[in-house]
Write a structure and sequence with these properties.
This protein is 90% helix and 0% strand. The chain folds into 2 domains: 55 residues, no CATH class; 132 residues. It has 195 residues and is mainly α. It contains 5 helices and no strands. The longest helix is centred in the middle third of the chain and has 74 residues.
Length: 195
């Protein structure tokens, strides 16, 4: 009986030592540390682990602590909602600003397209006039040559203007698309914040 008690005591001491060292308290580790039989080591490891598990159980907080936590939680939720509303209003203002800017750019693009069409019409008219002048060149070579040079110059300028207008239109379309993409991203962010 004393020998059994000593073996159990050795196993319990080995389990405590392993636990205080931060090592895993297993039957194999207890047996290696104490030199007892495996059955005694198993019982000592099980008992030590159960005692540790009971000590690790956290009791429910008192009602006063729960009430204070609920009040703090309520304050945090109210503050978070106010912050969210403020951020949402800021994003909405930014969206409205971008939408107004987009409309302005769309109007400018429409105006530039009108100017481009007018420049093309002028170019076409200049080309027609140049052809007419070429037909007259046979009878009035000197006068027609001077007029033809002038008309070609006008046609080139009109074409250059048309190309410049087209380039500007393309740039504005790209800028408008970038603004639309940014607006869509902002809307997605606002939607995610709502969710």
């Amino acid at each position: 009986m004393t020998e059994q008690a000593t073996a159990e005591q050795k196993a319990a001491e080995a389990a405590e030592a392993l636990g205080s060292e931060g090592a895993a308290v297993t039957a194999r580790a207890v047996r290696a540390r104490s030199g007892v039989r495996m059955a005694v080591a198993v019982e000592a490891a099980r008992a030590w682990n159960e005692a540790e598990a009971k000590a690790a159980v956290v009791p429910d907080p008192p009602a006063a602590v729960e009430a204070r936590f609920a009040a703090l939680w309520r304050e945090a939720v109210i503050a978070a909602r106010a912050e969210h509303s403020e951020a949402k209003a800021g994003w909405q203002a930014k969206l409205d600003e971008l939408d107004a800017e987009r409309r302005t750019l769309a109007d400018e693009v429409e105006q530039l397209e009108g100017e481009r069409d007018e420049a093309r019409r002028e170019r076409d008219e200049a080309g027609t006039e140049a052809d007419r002048l070429r037909e007259q060149a046979a009878s009035a070579a000197a006068a027609a040559a001077e007029t033809l040079a002038e008309q070609r110059s006008r046609a080139d300028r009109a074409e250059a203007r048309a190309e410049a207008v087209e380039r500007e239109r393309d740039r504005l379309i790209e800028e408008r698309q970038a603004l639309l993409n940014e607006r869509d991203e902002l809307r997605d962010r606002i939607r995610k914040q709502k969710d």
